[in-house]
Amino acid sequence: MKLKEISLMNVLMCFSVITIHLTSNPVALLRHDSFWYLVMFIINKFLTFAVPAFVFLSGFKLYNKYNDNKIDLKNFYIGRVKKIIIPYLIAFLVYFLFYIFENLIEWNDFFHSLLLGTLVAHFYYILIAIQLYLIFPLLHILFEKLDKIMLVLSFISTIIFNQFVFFEYNDRFCGTYIFYFILGMFVAKHYTKKEIRPFWGYVVGFVSIALIHIYLCYKMSLDDYWYKYSGIGQVLYVSLSCVLIYNLCIKNKSKGLEKMIDFINPHTFYIFLYHILVMNILQFVIYPHLNLSIKYQFTISFIIVYFVIFIYCGIRNLKKKKEQSE
Questions:
Q1: Is the pTM of this model over 0.85?
Q2: Is 59 exposed, middle or buried (CB count within 10 Å of its CB: 0-12, 13-18, 19+)?
Q3: Gap between the Cα atoms of 37 and 35, Å rounded
Q4: Using one digit for the tens of pLDDT, what is the confidence trace for 81-127?
Q5: From CA 56, how far away is CA 177, in angstroms rounded?
């Protein structure tokens, strides 16, 4: 069952991930006492719900698809290979060859970066998704019987691995994100096409947590304050974000927005995979030959990346219409 609110949320999260990556370079390079650093930092931190929200959407869509149906394991895993792993392998090879050509990486890094998703900033999400897809049939069985217990246990797991237990690459471990996946399943089971109440309670909670969390993160970036429980703050912030954004998407009645979503939504996974390639071409091929400030680089990158995305979507949609007419 195709749900407009999920398609809208999917596109919004895709744009949020792109904007995070566009602002990451200014955040890394601007002087921390500058006004533009403050602006870029707030935008970047505000949108950190994006990747966990993708995990939420994965849980929602998988549960919504299978619901009470028995999962055909062979078809399920073959589908994940075709839809996730093969596109990832192709994208990995494209990026790797580009980095080799630009002398940014060596051949002996190939398998390490492939298996751990370290080649490009956003590939870690693919590793998380693969782990969650592997265990989804088991999660589905347990969730049907113990949905509330699973929600609580997954929340505890996510708190533990965000705040108290750290190891190398724990940001690629599914236990660090599993609550958002189970939350997506829970919402799909109990709130499909329904607002999660109380709406204004979530608004007040989100605004309060957002102001405190982002402010303390900013203070910590200036070395003015040690934000000891930032992991817990992040989990609470993301959880409220997922619920509130879902509610806002449920409330959307704009026909114009629906047309834009239909234009972009079918292509979001490939946009997610390749948008950083456009940014890399600008950063490593174009900008070294130009004497541009960080602010101008950000502005140009923002315009070009989104322009390329809309051109890509337009071409893909025209091709699809042509195939359907034939």
A1: yes
A2: buried
A3: 5
A4: 999 999 999 999 999 999 999 999 999 999 999 999 999 999 999 99
A5: 9
